[in-house]
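Backbone-to-sequence.
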């Protein structure tokens, strides 16, 4: 069993005794804890929001408090993940959301490593987002939450406008990630056209030990 599966099992396992031990944070493997919480500067995380809710248990038992947290994780070089955690305490909900975000990392296409490839307009529920690529040195023109998320993804120059539903931070973060992943890159255009570029070598000796007539034309 890998480290992520082991950590997920520790977070989801509940103590049979109940009480405070059921909400206690589990002990993670040292390798996974170093990757998630280490100070090497490779990975970073942002707490998007924490919500408190209550569900009825019965007429005599009252209500049970539940906390829902969303955490974003990234390596500031093109990887971004969003995770959601639900637990009886806010601390455990944030820990579960952090683990879920590390398990849902996705590669974000970046143009020259600092901005998006083209203008992107995306709608998530009633939230509308408009992204515009900007040249090097422009900076980040967006809200505070999107500023932090852009840093996690490695975006340094972009302009983002929001319309409708801007107060829902869960929607803003999910719309941001979906908009980034909806970009069309030059590689996608090549795959759709079915046309590829063939390298031509005029010299007698081919690189990499290739043989003419066997590996290349």
């Amino acid at each position: 069993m890998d480290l992520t599966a082991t950590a997920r099992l520790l977070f989801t396992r509940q103590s049979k005794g109940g009480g405070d031990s059921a909400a206690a944070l589990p002990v993670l493997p040292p390798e996974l804890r170093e990757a998630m919480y280490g100070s090497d500067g490779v990975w970073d995380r942002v707490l998007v929001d924490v919500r408190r809710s209550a569900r009825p248990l019965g007429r005599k038992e009252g209500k049970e408090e539940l906390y829902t947290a969303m955490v974003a994780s990234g390596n500031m070089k093109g990887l971004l993940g969003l995770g959601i955690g639900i637990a009886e305490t806010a601390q455990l909900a944030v820990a579960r959301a952090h683990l879920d975000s590390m398990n849902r990392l996705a590669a974000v296409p970046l143009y020259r490593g600092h901005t998006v490839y083209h203008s992107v307009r995306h709608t998530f529920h009633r939230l509308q987002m408009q992204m515009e690529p900007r040249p090097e040195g422009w900076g980040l023109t967006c809200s505070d939450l999107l500023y932090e998320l852009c840093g996690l993804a490695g975006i340094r120059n972009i302009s983002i406008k929001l319309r409708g539903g801007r107060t829902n931070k869960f929607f803003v973060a999910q719309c941001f990630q979906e908009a980034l992943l909806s970009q069309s890159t030059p590689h996608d255009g090549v795959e759709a056209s079915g046309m590829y570029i063939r390298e031509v070598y005029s010299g007698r000796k081919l690189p990499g030990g290739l043989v003419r007539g066997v590996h290349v034309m």
